[in-house]
Amino acid sequence: MALILVKKHRRRKLKLGNRLKYCRFDHDDMTQEALAEAVGVTRQTVLSVEKGRYVPSAMLALKMAAYFGKPVEDIFFLVEETASKGEES
Amino acid sequence: MNTPVESFIKTTVLAVLVLSGIALWILPKTGFAKRVRGSEKCFITSQWLGILTGTIGLAATFILPRLIVEAHLMWLILLPFVLAEMYWLLVARIRPTAAVLDEKQGFDMTRAGSLAMALSVPAMTLMFWWSRDHAVEPFLWFPFFFFTVVLFFSAGVLLGYRRL
To answer: What ipTM, to 2 d.p.?
Structure first.
């Protein structure tokens, strides 16, 4: 079963989706700048991660998740490339 | 025998490099150190300086071929970019425990480095074809390569950073 799933995943093009924007809004309408400062990166990095243009390192993803007090998989998840546009934050 | 232009360029470059070297050594020990920090603005400005340096350098390579090498004009053109890089060295020296660049900046620089190396091949090929019909001095190959890489690298970083 696991082998079938792995093969299925190999055929599909996956990308990293995220709910960062929603997390920021839930967090008193936090700005990208404030989040960037909190996790020690630039605003451009937060913007790129939110837009799905840049895949953050495990360290940065964990820092963001810890900041919002959520498990990392609640913020970052895998999406298929074609479905990603609608699901992106 | 140095021409006046050559002497002026040599003196200026040497003086600025020595002064900035002294600043790099002394500034971390002064109160000025608190004000030195790497910001997004500094990062973008450094890359724009790279684009400017690369463009002016390439233009000068073709317009003033003798001056660029024999009068050391190449080093004068490079000076602002070198000073920007020295500022980053100063930041790294003053804040050794903090990351000088954030991970996206590091990623963009790595990608731009590969892009610059890859694009320098067709650029050198074009120069090679062009040089068959035009008398290109052998000493111009180095400045051409150097400024091409600086231009492609800085433009690549800003493209990755969505600021170009």
So the answer is: 0.73
